[in-house]
């Protein structure tokens, strides 16, 4: 016995079946010039920053010394420092530093794989995110990026293209609403 829902779905299904159509042909876009320059422009357009490794080392040295001074009392009481197994324990994470597998010049998207994340929540829960990226690991567009992902053995990965942004409320741009407030990409060779 067929109920009314099944009858409606059957009629819709018989009317919506269409012939299979081939996917459109697509030619890979290539950038005239430097992938690094295109990537940097895209990251900056996404409200992120790009820095050379040497400049980052100077900046980070200052940050580390300030942090050590602030946390020295806390670390004296701790016996070990380890990444927690529960993402809830990272609720107050201020800075995360990750390795990016590759970047896409077309839109500034950086591919992050599960092996380098430890906890999948890290890029979203931290206040500030630093991603190290090799210049050698740039591709021109998302088609090349997806081809590169096919070569990977990762079980999970994500594209990240800047700090979190939303303009849903009264069309006012809010940075850091759903993730990090800043993204800094550090170039290395």
Automatic annotation (TrEMBL):
Alphabetical list of PANTHER family matching this protein: LACTATE UTILIZATION PROTEIN C (PTHR43682)
Domain of life: Bacteria
Domain LUD span(s) in chain numbering: 89-186
Organism encoding this protein: Algoriphagus faecimaris
SUPFAM superfamilies: NagB/RpiA/CoA transferase-like
UniProt protein name: L-lactate dehydrogenase complex protein LldG
One Pfam family matching this protein: LUD_dom
Residue segments, region Disordered: 1-25
